[in-house]
Amino acid sequence: MPPRKKRSSTAENEVDKPKKRLCSKKSADSSFSVKRCTTWFKTYCSAENDGSIGPDGMEKFCKDLGVEPENIVMLVLAYRMEAKHMGYFTLNEWLKGMTYLQCDSIEKLNRKFDVLNASLSDSVTFRNVYRFAFEFSLENGIRSLDKTTAIELMNLLLDGRWSLSKEFMQFLEQSKFKGMNKDQWYNVYEFSHHILPDLSNYDEDGAWPVLLDEFVEWHRQRSNKTSETGVDC
Amino acid sequence: MSGITKGKKDTKMRIRAFPITMDEKYVNNIWTLLKNAIQEIQKKNNSGLSFEELYRNAYTMVLHKHGEKLYTGLRDVVTEHLVLKVRVEVVDALHNNFLQVLNNAWNDHQTSMVMIRDILMYMDRVYVQQNNVENVYNLGLMIFRDQIIRFPLVHAHLRDTLLTMVAKERKGEVVDRGAVKNACQMLMILGIDSRSVYEEDFEKPFLIQSAEFYRLESEKFLAENSASVYIKKVEARILEEAERATHYLDKSTEEPIVKVLEDELIRKHMKTIVEMENSGVVHMLKNNKSEDLACMYKLFCRVPDGLRTMCDCISAYLREQGKALVTEDDSGTNAITFIQSLLDLKDRFDHFLHESFSNDRLFKQMVSSDFEHFVNLNPRSPEYLSLFIDDRLRKGVKGMSEQEIENVLDKSMVLFRFLQEKDVFERYYKQHLAKRLLLNKSVSDDSEKNMISKLKTECGCQFTSKLEGMFKDMTVSNTIMEEFKHHLQLSATNLNGVELFVRVLTTGFWPFQSSLSKCNMPSAPNMAFEAFRRFYLGKHSGRQLSLQPQHGSADLNATFYTMKRSTAGSSMDLVDDGAASSSAKSLRKHIIQVSTYHMVILMLFNKKDLWSYDEIKNETDIPERDLMRALQSLALGKITQRVLSKDPKTKDIEPDHMFTVNDQFTSKLFRVKIQSVATKGDTEPERNETRNKVDEDRKHEIEAAIVRIMKARKRLQHNVLVAEVTEQLKARFLPSPVVIKKRIEGLIEREYLSRTAEDRKIYTYVA
What does the mean pLDDT of chain A come to? Predict the structure, then answer.
């Protein structure tokens, strides 16, 4: 299919210059074709996954893209696709996402990387991606995220964007909680967004989940200890 | 007069004023006349004067518009007299009968001024009014005040004299009260329309001196005396000063001087008095000195914060006492003494409240809040209270009349109100009530119902509905048994000699775990029960009956076969009937009252003589813990209780130990009751279990409250929700905000609530 496109566009270029003005200014390469997209999709999907892209296909996809599956870009991509299950893309989801991005090939997607990454700096988009990530990572039928997955996922999303993220991960590691539910997940983001790194504007009556109350206490205790032992802050 | 003849045309009558052609000389004459008269009056020589003449002359002067001359003249005359004559006398008498002389001068002055005023009354009425000056009498007062009283020498000396006299009297000397009274009254009058002269010249310095005096006195008193003596002295002094003011100072001084006293004697030393070692409030409380406390109370009422100081001290003492009572030492706590000592403490303080503090609200509140504080310091208080009430309601409480029991229950209710964890109490009360009902141990049903109605008044129906249900079950069971007996007669069913009595308990009401314990019933009782079950289910289809072996009891006919000892004259024979042959076996029969488990175990021995622990366990299916207990009471209790004997004869029970009927068993009684190895009150693991159940129940109650509130209000802020929940539940227990928060989170997860999108602190109800 790509060759065909090229042929027609060069034909256009050579023959119909005036027409070109009426066409889109994009280069011939980048006009989106559903058919091409679907074909592209089919290179990854497998029958055993009911025609969706499964874990193997996903691996291949990532390799083609040149990113690790854990890269946050994949998450943003999944968000745009409104994918339901981590590790799986259905055709509809694929088409939805790719249409939004106007990509029907690896090269185009690669070029969109920066855009995807940049979109995360918009706080609304980031929040939506963050929230989406939770449900996306849930296992079938279970309403909460197990500890390890939660930590990994949170790390991916918040590391570098929240000054206390490392401490929070440490806290989670040593705490007894077994799973994080949606409310807690959402509130961690709100917390990172509203509460100062020194926790000075944290109020106990702020309706934060108990998990975060415990985090604040844990963090404060630790800071007290370090200040007691005379560590320079 | 000439005006009348003026003109016939005018019908108006005109009366012309008198000719004002009074010449200077004439006026002066009149004035001289008056002046002399005044001076005579001042010399007390007024008898030779004609009132009418003087009045007329004054009248004339004023009429002819010479009022001013008269007025100023008067003033000069009076001043002259006072300065040149009176003052000189007074100053002379400075150290010699001063007050007397002054008083005389004052009286004379007053008298003469009255007379002068009378003569000059026209001037008062006309000239004074028109010119807005002081009237004659007041003028006289002012001159007296300025020239005599405020004359520096006199002023100072008057003040000092008065103060010295008061000081002397305070020290206990006798002084001339009359003189002081006169002086004070004079000063009051000299103020004309105010008491400012009195205040300035006497009262202010008086108060200052008094303050100083009492300051010193209080320090001396405090150093020398105990609190109770000090208080009495203070009281006496206050009375004295009040009386002094009434009697010979001015009455209006009473209030300020009493205030001074209160300030110096009480307020400045409140804490010292209250906290005095070995005589302060604490000492008084310890030694039941209600009178002293009453005295102190009355005194401290007078000063702001006085009562609060007392209250704080008493509160500290009460809390300390209470805390000591509720702190458990390692030697184990007797619930009865625990509660009784709390009740005694309350009685003591109620006595103080009534006798010494006249039921003052501040003190009442203090006692209540202190009790609430320390009663809840010990988490086992609810359990102990229930045990205490249990003890009182059981049979065998000697010598208590209905009224006495009623009193005790009322007092227990007072303690109940202080409990924060009322739901824990409810749980234990249920358990204890169940035991009482099933084992038939209540003193009287009336007392039980009385107690329940008290709880109902306090906590509402929800609290007591299950308790009432338990009662109902008992009466219903009795009825059913009647019907069952009737049914047996009619159907001529034979229960094989088993006399059956069944109590049917509704599962929800009774605090038992149902159907957890089961065991293999021996055939005879089992068949009897089955007959009943058929009967009951025939009447109430759709219900389920399950036997509760851990709560039943049985009476067994037991026959013991002893080998008769062949030693002669031995008193070991316990034969009631049987052959006299020396080698024959003899029978002893007893009726043994046992629990169901005991019965199951004992009836095994009808099948086989020797059983091992393991075998018993397998055969009966009784849970391990209960089996242990049962065997312990059967085989390892007191000698008079050992129906079974164990081999080897050790105190513990191992799986391979062998049990057999103790044919050596003897008892003086025909009916032998086997006591269970029961503990009064919970053991540690049982307590934890109960606590866990309570926590579970609380979680549900909190969630129910949250849902209820949110359903009604639809949208609520976090803090408000927490407050509402606490308010709704505080009659049963005090939920902590953290627990409530956790429950809210749980409900969010289960999608009963959600956070609003705009403000994550506001929740909304999800329909």
Answer: 77
